[in-house]
C-alpha cells in the first residue's frame, strides 16, 4: 500500500489526467523550510538522486530555503549520495544544551555544513549541468538584524502584527535575496510578483548562503555581509518563503515537483498561525505535491514527523531523539520508489487529487 498522497495544481492535474506527464516535464524541484521535518523527505530525495531521472534533457532548478536549501546543496556535489548521507548523519547527531547561545548553535551548524560540503568540490558543484541551485535567504533590517535577543524578539513581534495586515508590510524589515548557480538567474526572479535581489553563487559565498538560509531567528546567529551580496545580516529564507510562494515554471507544459511533510502550503514563516493565509491557487497551477499520508505518519516514532521541538523534549536524552530520527529516515526509504512506481506504471492519473 502506498504511503504517499499526490495532489496537483490545475494545469499539472490536466496534464496528468490527459496522459501527458513524464519526469522530463519537471523543470523545478522545490523544497520548503522545514527544520527537522526534512528527514521524512530523505528516501524520496535519495531515490531520485540514485536514479538520476531528473534533469536528463534539461537542467532542473533545485529551489529551497532553510533545510530545503541544505538538502539540495548536497545534490550538486561530486559524490552526491555520499554528501547527502553525510548531511543526514551530521544533522541527526547534533546535540544542544540548555542555555546555548545563538552563536554556539551557529558553530554547530557550520560543522554540519563542513561535514557534507567540501571546499575543493565547490567548482564541480557550481559547474553542474544537470542541476541549478537556488538558495533563498532573508536579509534582515532594523530590529530583526540585532543579535540582542529581546530586540530581535520585539522586531519579530512587530513583523507578525504587520504581516497579519498584509504580507507586503514585511518588506520594511526583510529583503528576499536568492543565491543561484548556473549561467542565468532563476526564471521566477524575473516574474512580476517577485521582489528581491539575486546573487550568483561562487566558491566564497556558497557555504555562507547555505548557512544563512537556515539561520532560524533567535535560535541561530545570522550570517553577516555575504560575499558578493548586499551588506547586512542574513537569516532564514523561510521568513519570506516558508513553503512555495512563487510559480517556478516558464511554460504551461512544465511542472514543479514539491515533496512536502503536509498538504497545507503556507507562504511565509509568520503565516503559520494564520489559517486564512495561503498561497494563491494560480501560483500552484504547475505544482505536483507529494506528501506522506496520515497512516504513514501514525507509525513514525511518537506518531509524528520530527520537528525542532524534539530538541527541547529530548534535551536530556539526545540518544532517544537520535534513535527516533534515524527510525524516521529508515521508514521514509520507500517513498521515492512508491512515487516512481506510480509514474512508470501510469497509475499516477488514478490517484492524483486536485490541489
From TrEMBL:
SUPFAM superfamilies: FabD/lysophospholipase-like
Protein name: Patatin-like phospholipase
Native species: Syntrophus gentianae
Lineage start: Bacteria, Pseudomonadati, Thermodesulfobacteriota, Syntrophia, Syntrophales
Amino acid at each position: 500500500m502506498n504511503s504517499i498522497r499526490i495532489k496537483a495544481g490545475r494545469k499539472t492535474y490536466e496534464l496528468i489526467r490527459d496522459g501527458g506527464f513524464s519526469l522530463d516535464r519537471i523543470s523545478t524541484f522545490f523544497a520548503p523550510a522545514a527544520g527537522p521535518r526534512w528527514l521524512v523527505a530523505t528516501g524520496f530525495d535519495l531515490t531520485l538522486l540514485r536514479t538520476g531521472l531528473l534533469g536528463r534533457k534539461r537542467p532542473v532548478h533545485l529551489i529551497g530555503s532553510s533545510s530545503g536549501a541544505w538538502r539540495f546543496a548536497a545534490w550538486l556535489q561530486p559524490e552526491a549520495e555520499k554528501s547527502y548521507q553525510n548531511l543526514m548523519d551530521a544533522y541527526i547527531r547534533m546535540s544542544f544544551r540548555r542555555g546555548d547561545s545563538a552563536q554556539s548553535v551557529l558553530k554547530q551548524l557550520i560543522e554540519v555544513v563542513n561535514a557534507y560540503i567540501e571546499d575543493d568540490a565547490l567548482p564541480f558543484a557550481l559547474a553542474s549541468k544537470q542541476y541549478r541551485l537556488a538558495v533563498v535567504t532573508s536579509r534582515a533590517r532594523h530590529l530583526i538584524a540585532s543579535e540582542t535577543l529581546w530586540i530581535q524578539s520585539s522586531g519579530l513581534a512587530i513583523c507578525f502584527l504587520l504581516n497579519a495586515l498584509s504580507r507586503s508590510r514585511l518588506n520594511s524589515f526583510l529583503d528576499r535575496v536568492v543565491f543561484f548557480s548556473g549561467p542565468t538567474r532563476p526564471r521566477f526572479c524575473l516574474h512580476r510578483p517577485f521582489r528581491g535581489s539575486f546573487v550568483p553563487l561562487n566558491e566564497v559565498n556558497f557555504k555562507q548562503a547555505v548557512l544563512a538560509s537556515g539561520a532560524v531567528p533567535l535560535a541561530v546567529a545570522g550570517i553577516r555581509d555575504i560575499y558578493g551580496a548586499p551588506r547586512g545580516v542574513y537569516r532564514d529564507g523561510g521568513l519570506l518563503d516558508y513553503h512555495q510562494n512563487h510559480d517556478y515554471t516558464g511554460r504551461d507544459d512544465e511542472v514543479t515537483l514539491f515533496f512536502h511533510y503536509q498538504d497545507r502550503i503556507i507562504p511565509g514563516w509568520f503565516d503559520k498561525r494564520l489559517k486564512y493565509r495561503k498561497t494563491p491557487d494560480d501560483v500552484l497551477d504547475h505544482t505536483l505535491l507529494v506528501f506522506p499520508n496520515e497512516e504513514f505518519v501514525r507509525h513514525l516514532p511518537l506518531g509524528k514527523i520530527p520537528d525542532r521541538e524534539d530538541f527541547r523534549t529530548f534535551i536530556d536524552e539526545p540518544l532517544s531523539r537520535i534513535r527516533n530520527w534515524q527510525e524516521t529516515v529508515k521508514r521514509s526509504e520507500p517513498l521515492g520508489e512508491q512515487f516512481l512506481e506510480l509514474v512508470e506504471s501510469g497509475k499516477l492519473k488514478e490517484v492524483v487529487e486536485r490541489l
